[in-house]
Amino acid sequence: MGSSETVPGNTQTHNTPTPLTLGDRTFRSRLFVGTGKYSDAETMNAALEASGCEVVTVAIRRVDLNSGDNLLAQLDREKYFLLPNTAGCFNAEDAIRVCQLSRELGLGDWVKLEVLGDRKTLLPDPVGTLEACRELVADGFKVLVYSSDDPVLALRLQDAGATSVMPAGSPIGSGQGILNSNNLSIILEQLDVPVIIDAGVGTASDVTIAMELGAEGVLLNTGIAGAKDPVAMAHAMRHALDAGWFAARAGRIAKRRYAQASSPTEGVLGE
Amino acid sequence: MSNQSNRFEIQLNGEVHQIEAETSVLDLVNSLPINPIAVAVERNKKIVPRSLHAETIIEAGDHIEVVTIVGGG
Predict the structure, then answer these.
(1) B20 part of a folded domain
(2) Is A120 among the catalytic positions?
(3) Which ranges constitute the DSSP H helices of B6-72?
(4) How many domains does chain A have?
(5) Separation in Å, CA A114 to CA A59, A179, A239
(6) Residue B13 to residues A66, A84, A93: CA-CA distances in angstroms?
(7) Residue at A12 is within a domain
(8) A77 vs B contacts (CB less than 8 Å)
(9) Is A64 on the interface with B (CB under 8 A)?
(10) Are B34 and A35 an interchain contact pair (Cβ–Cβ within 8 Å)?
(11) A145 vs A77, A121, A198, A240, B73, CA distance in Å?
(12) Is B73 part of a structural domain of the chain?
């Protein structure tokens, strides 16, 4: 679609999705990209650039006393909004501790909350997640919370004051895409806060499916960082998100069991 | 001899670390062979705000954590 054309039903003239508003902030891109698992800073920077993202997730870890190497030292912090995660935390207390350290690191009040329940699946601990969400919101944090695809938990997290609820499409890093589109649709229908699909994206079509379901955005890391060509995959993810966003608003056709001719059935030669 | 008695052990990022008496948090951070983007310091599970790094003196047996921002998803 050219930039001079107008999307029906939308007063804006554009060829990209509208910006995403979360709490009191607006982000130009709905694709949130993780900064983990890159082999080198050059590839990371090129992939982030190709993805068009504004929000990048980061982790808080002990400094490596034996090596000063840190890819993030080469990240252009002026260009991106850093969203610290609590990855690796298996209880609410540890997650809250990481959020407070993040604040001390100068990263502000925005956090991606993860309280994990199991090392093999990395699925969230719903009880610890809810507890940490409540406490962090009370402490003034803006909490974007990683959740399972359970619609009841998603509602509880919204009630606890989450800025965004981020259900997993499938387990973190699994590349299985969207496994339970029914549950995700229910979550999307029920919640008022923006829902971002987080985790499990394997390839571009997964992002499109998430957006077609009605997600406000997608967060991914391994799908890009682990691809053979991360920069090309980042490019694909960006366009997949746009495709899904437009498709969700375009009004798709109904599915039918049998064919329906696309060309006129009248005036066929030989009849 | 006196040097020896002026040194003591702390836990730094989970490992035993020797420091001189009267070392401040700021001294410790500056002595580390690291070039982090930013650091935050915890002393015995309590954050030491950056504004207090210079005046906070580390004591024997303290558990010090020095953390930074790294790549993550």
Answers:
(1) yes
(2) no
(3) 25-31
(4) 1
(5) 11, 20, 28
(6) 12, 20, 18
(7) no
(8) 37
(9) yes
(10) no
(11) 23, 17, 9, 23, 13
(12) no
Contact residues, chain B, for A60 at CB < 8 Å: 40, 67-70
> Residue B11 is part of a domain; what is its CATH number?
3.10.20.30
Catalytic residue among A79, A112, A142, A255: A112
Of B12, B37, B47, the CB nearest to A104: B47
Is residue B72 assigned to a domain?
no
Do B67 and A58 count as a contact with CB atoms less than 8 A apart?
no
A59 touches chain B (CB under 8 A): yes
Q: Is-contact A57 A112, C-beta < 8 A?
A: yes
CATH number at residue A127: 3.20.20.70
* Range of the structural domain that residue A144 is part of: 20-250
Structural domain of residue B60, as residue ranges? 2-67
Q: Which amino acid is at A185?
A: S
Tens digit of pLDDT per residue, chain A (271 long)? 444 444 555 545 568 999 999 999 999 999 999 999 999 999 999 999 999 999 999 999 999 888 767 888 889 888 999 999 999 999 999 999 999 999 999 999 999 999 999 999 999 999 999 999 999 999 999 999 999 999 999 999 999 999 999 999 999 989 999 999 999 999 999 999 999 999 999 999 999 999 999 999 999 999 999 999 999 999 999 999 999 999 999 999 999 999 999 999 899 998 7
Q: Is the ipTM of this complex over 0.85?
A: yes
Q: Count up the domains in chain B and report the number.
A: 1
